[in-house]
Amino acid sequence: xxxxYEDLKYFSKSCDKLIAVVNDKTxxxxxxxxxxxxxxxxxxxxxLKKLLDEKKINYEMxxxxxxxxxxFTDDEDIARYAKSYDEDKEYESIYNHIKNKVVKGDKVRxxxxxxxxxxxxxxxFNKLSL
Length: 130
Known about the structure:
three-stranded antiparallel beta sheet, 130 residues, single chain, 5 helices
């Protein structure tokens, strides 16, 4: 589920401890529109960290990096995947990007590598006075 983190007071009334997993997306595995990237970056680890620091809220931040690549069985599979991300008539750009980045896999025919960076924030509401 997705919850925005701006209203920490709401969460402090509902739970003792909040564990927030936040994307550190500054890049993606496929090209996206500038508008979509702005939305993605709006809820970033950098912004949550800034908010917590401004409110002088104690937290623990654990950065993680995981492989979130995509497998493909054939060229048609790549085409379907590219179409699923085509929101602004950018199919050709997305498809060509994938074809240029895809590698031959050991156990699958094609693999699009993508290392996803996230941060886990642990906030103990028992120590807060919001």
